[in-house]
Write a structure and sequence with these properties.
CATH architecture: 3-Layer(aba) Sandwich
Radius of gyration: 17 Å
Number of helices: 8
Shape: globular
Helix content: 25-40%
CATH class: Alpha Beta
Strand content: 5-15%
Strand order of the largest sheet: 3-2-1-4-5
Order of helices and strands: EHEHEHHEHHEHH
Distance between the termini: 47 Å
CATH superfamily: HUPs
CATH topology: Rossmann fold
């Protein structure tokens, strides 16, 4: 009988944004059979989910699962409520403190469900596009958080207890946005189908002024590549 682990299956968290698209392309390039996982978590728009579907198909994910988890019921974030999304902040301001776009425990919720998905399909690798350089100060994007979650993953699962180790891959965590864009371009990512904006127009047009739009623009500029939207 063929060992199912030999297939190098992986669960890849896919938001539909620039970072997660790059991570999916990276995992595919490393020979993983990728199961993309996205979340309808009560975010104020669905543009990123539409983008995630396009990205999963374009980059060859073997399947794309969308799970509904209504974090809007808890509130506490500009991304899941009517709280205004900050606009036109300087790069210095973006890099200080935790902004109102932080969604309480979002990556912990997402990684927990990715872990359950991975264990159910006999995959031991989980990829997530967190970044600790050009980011908005989210505590659940830091290397120490990822290390802690990986430890929990191997303590709290049947597979982990029986000796098969889960690995949380964060290939972008020490990269600038420019580095990420260069990598994705090399791997053939079509950034025109990705979506990064926190507060798009009803038709999905990016606002161009939120922190995510500003960091995206900065990344393309520093990479020496015309911004693709």
């Amino acid at each position: 009988m063929k060992n199912t682990l030999s297939l190098k299956k992986a669960v890849v968290l896919l938001s539909g944004g620039l970072d997660s698209a790059t991570v999916l392309a990276y995992a595919v390039s490393k020979g993983y059979v990728c199961h993309a996982l996205s979340f309808d978590y009560g975010q104020r728009h669905k543009s990123e989910l539409k983008a995630a579907r396009k990205v999963a198909k374009a980059l060859g994910a073997t399947e794309h699962v969308v799970v509904k988890v209504d974090l809007k019921k808890f509130g506490g974030s500009a991304l899941t409520s009517d709280t205004p999304v900050p606009k036109s902040r300087s790069n210095k301001a973006i890099g200080v403190g935790i902004p109102v776009t932080y969604v309480p425990a979002r990556n912990t919720v997402f990684l927990s469900l990715a872990l359950a998905f991975a264990e159910s399909i006999v995959a031991r690798d989980i990829f997530i596009g967190v970044n600790a350089l050009d980011y908005s100060g989210y505590p659940d994007c830091r290397p120490e958080y990822i290390r802690a979650f990986q430890k929990v993953a191997n303590l709290a699962t049947k597979a982990g207890v029986e000796g098969t180790r889960f690995r949380i891959h964060t290939p972008l965590i020490k990269m600038t946005k420019a580095d990420i864009i260069r990598l994705g371009t090399k791997l053939g990512v079509d950034y025109s189908i990705t979506h990064s904006c926190y507060d798009p127009a009803p038709d999905g047009t990016p606002c161009g002024m939120c922190d995510s739009c500003i960091l995206r623009k900065k990344g393309f500029r520093e990479a020496g590549i015309s911004e693709i939207r």
